[in-house]
Write a structure and sequence with these properties.
heterodimer, A: 20 strands, B: mainly alpha, MetI-like fold, 14 helices, binds adenosine-5'-diphosphate, binds magnesium ion
Chain lengths: 356, 283
């Protein structure tokens, strides 16, 4: 068990692709860090640099107190769980889990003790004599986890470990991995493109975009105070609405769709034109205190929620999505009165995308 | 095939298959029959279609004595020579090509692709093409009439190298990476992962290469002068003398039958593996 720290880590692939553009990250001991971002943003590259499977172009990676830039993967004291499990097809489950221990010269009684312990933890004791091809996807996933656990490494690295599973199993394994990590307390870095996994599993969430870490914070902070429009739109489902707005001269209010809204704090911006973000679930619907009206285009009934896609009835007619709890008997073409409250608004600079 | 087809539609392919088998098997049958008749019956041009009375005698004579002329060796010895040659060629080809493919696929070294293409180009240079220089080298090295001389010049195999390379390229990269994280160095990865995964491919290749080695004719003909180094394929040829009447046809045909047995045995024994190696991979 150890802390982990990245200092301005960069990766340029041969051919000039700049996959990771200077990421710094402090991971305390026992923390569960999730790297999330769209496909191709450099998550896997970053993880593989920590594992030692890719060279580090510049910057330093520290595991515990040791700089590991030039340390072989096997000697970095980390274990990795791959997306396609990467189990040895010709070895029984037991041998798959024992392989790394035996290669390190561990005695057979201790190997057996550790494998049995991990198998008990993962409830795969009855599978130890099978070959990987005789296992289901979920079982293979557990064996891959087991192979990491028996090593008792300083850190676990996961690269989208659940994306080959069906939706139901994914939810179940997500909960189990999180619980397991809390129980054994091993520092973990987990890569995913799934924001639900990211939000539910992370102690520290790193939102990546085009090779940079856009925001590193707790999931709650990232949801409530996204630092950029990218983070704001990536986390949350449906995505945050963005509306063009004007800041009043004194910075105490914004004008959205022609309607002035007094801000609780105040804001400063270089230009008076700004972007206002508001989450679909934070728009209040009802005639009382309504500030705007929405012309409904499409309704989606999810059962627990109703999602309304429409346009703000105002000049500019910006698109707006509203999420309502429960079943709402609405129809396309209807006009919905809504209220945008000041505390629900996120203000961004429209050119840089930074939070104001 | 699950659909029910008419009697005729099922019969036609069957008849064609039976015809094919008959055409291929008939000469073998004739040879078998010929080995059981006295030599003068065959020399006279009467080819009987049912086995005669010399069956065990012909085979016994062939195995232990060969043909009656003094220079000839017993077929038992020739079979042993052929077996040794075929086994060395097959296992040597597999060992060398699996290691070279491993190097080409998993290591980055200068001129890697150049090395690969040079191996590839040797496809155009079989022994028959480079026969004089190869003979000269082998003769200068004093390897005439040795097993080394018989096998070494045939052992490098571009085909097998390509075959293993294609197979290695289908092994997922994550398996290499998992091995690295599990503390296995390159050679340990080779022994513990690559080799076990290649088992069926090795078996399939062994069948093909064993038969290739067994059937060698031109090279052993050049390189062996001593009759006790003769292989059976050459032995058969030498048993047939120009004057028809002097050829002991029953012995020749018995030898031909005997020469067919080891390749048949290899195919039959390895059939299961052979088919699996060519159609499926265990990944
Ligand atoms: N081996 C490689 N060589 C060159 N470019 C690569 C290589 N691996 C990944 N890339 C590029 O680096 C970028 C980041 O890739 P990756 O880290 O795999 O993204 P993610 O895991 O976030 O989807 C992508 O643009 C990808 O095309
Ligand atoms: Mg990836």
């Amino acid at each position: 068990m150890a802390s982990l720290s990245l200092d301005n880590v960069k990766k340029v692939y041969p051919g000039g692709v700049e996959a990771v553009k200077g990421v710094s990250l402090q991971v305390p001991d026992r923390a569960f860090v999730v790297l999330v971002g769209p496909s191709g943003c450099g998550k896997s590259t970053l993880l593989r640099m920590i594992a030692g499977l890719e060279t580090i172009t510049s910057g330093t990676v520290k595991i515990g107190d040791r700089i590991v830039n030039d340390v072989e993967p096997a000697n970095r004291d980390i274990a990795m769980v791959f997306q396609n499990y990467a189990l040895y097809p010709h070895m029984k489950v037991f041998d798959n889990m024992a392989y790394g221990l035996r290669n390190r010269g561990m005695g057979e009684p201790e190997v057996k003790r550790r494998v049995d312990e991990a198998a008990r933890l993962l409830e795969i004791g009855q599978l130890l004599d099978r070959k990987p091809r005789q296992l289901s996807g979920g079982q293979r996933q557990r064996v891959a986890m087991g192979r990491a656990i028996v090593r008792q490494p300083a850190a676990f690295l996961f690269d989208e470990p659940l994306s080959n599973l069906d939706a139901k199993l994914r939810v179940q394994m997500r909960v189990e991995i999180k619980k397991l990590q809390r129980d054994i307390g091993t520092t973990s870095i987990y890569v995913t493109h799934d924001q639900v996994e990211a939000m539910t599993m992370a102690d520290i969430l790193v939102v990546m975009n085009a090779g940079s870490a856009e925001q590193i914070d707790t999931p709650r902070e990232i949801y409530q105070r996204p630092r950029t429009t990218f983070v704001a739109s990536f986390i949350g489902s449906p995505s945050m609405n963005f509306l063009p707005a004007k800041l009043t001269g004194d910075g105490k209010g914004v004008i959205v769709g022609g309607v002035p809204i007094a801000l609780t704090g105040g804001a400063h911006a270089a230009a008076s034109t700004i972007t206002v973000g508001v989450r679909p679930e934070e728009i209040v619907v009802g005639a009382d205190g309504a500030t705007h009206t929405v012309a409904i285009d499409v309704i989606e009934h999810l059962g627990a929620d109703t999602i309304v896609h429409g346009k703000l009835v105002a000049d500019g007619a910006a698109a707006l999505t509203v999420r309502l709890v429960g079943y709402w008997p609405l129809a396309p073409g209807e006009i919905l009165p809504v209220a945008l409250h000041a505390r629900a608004l996120h203000l961004f600079d429209p050119t840089t995308g930074q939070r104001l | 095939m699950v659909e029910r087809r008419s009697m005729l539609a099922r019969l036609v392919p069957h008849v064609i298959l039976c015809l094919g088998v008959a055409i291929l098997a008939f000469p073998v049958y004739l040879c078998f029959v010929g080995s059981s008749h006295p030599q003068d019956v065959i020399s006279n041009g009467q080819m009987p279609l049912v086995p005669g009375h010399l069956l065990t005698e012909s085979y016994w004579l062939a195995l232990t004595r060969g043909v009656a002329r003094t220079s000839s060796e017993p077929v038992g010895l020739m079979l042993l020579n052929s077996l040794t040659m075929a086994l060395i060629i097959a296992s040597g080809k597999i060992a060398i090509s699996i290691i070279s493919s491993f190097a080409v696929v998993y290591f980055k070294f200068p001129f890697r692709m150049a090395a690969f293409w040079m191996i590839f180009i040797t496809l155009m240079l079989p022994v028959e093409v480079r026969i004089y220089p190869t003979y000269k080298v082998v003769a200068d090295l004093g390897m005439l009439d040795t097993y080394a001389g018989l096998t070494v010049p045939l052992i490098a195999s571009a085909t097998a190298t390509l075959f293993f390379r294609q197979f290695f390229l289908t092994i997922p990269d994550e398996l290499v990476e998992a091995s690295k994280l599990d503390g296995a160095g390159p050679m340990k990865f080779f022994w513990d992962t690559v080799l076990p995964l290649s088992r069926t491919n090795i078996a399939a290749l062994f069948v093909i290469l064993f038969i290739y080695g067994w059937n060698q004719y031109l090279w052993p003909l050049l390189i062996t002068t001593r009759s006790d180094m003769q292989t059976v394929v050459i032995g058969i040829k030498k048993m047939i003398v120009t004057q028809d009447a002097l050829t002991e046809w029953n012995i020749v045909m018995a030898t031909a039958m005997l020469a067919m047995l080891p390749p048949v045995a290899v195919v039959v024994l390895m059939q299961r593996w052979f088919v699996r190696g060519l159609v499926e991979t265990e990944k």
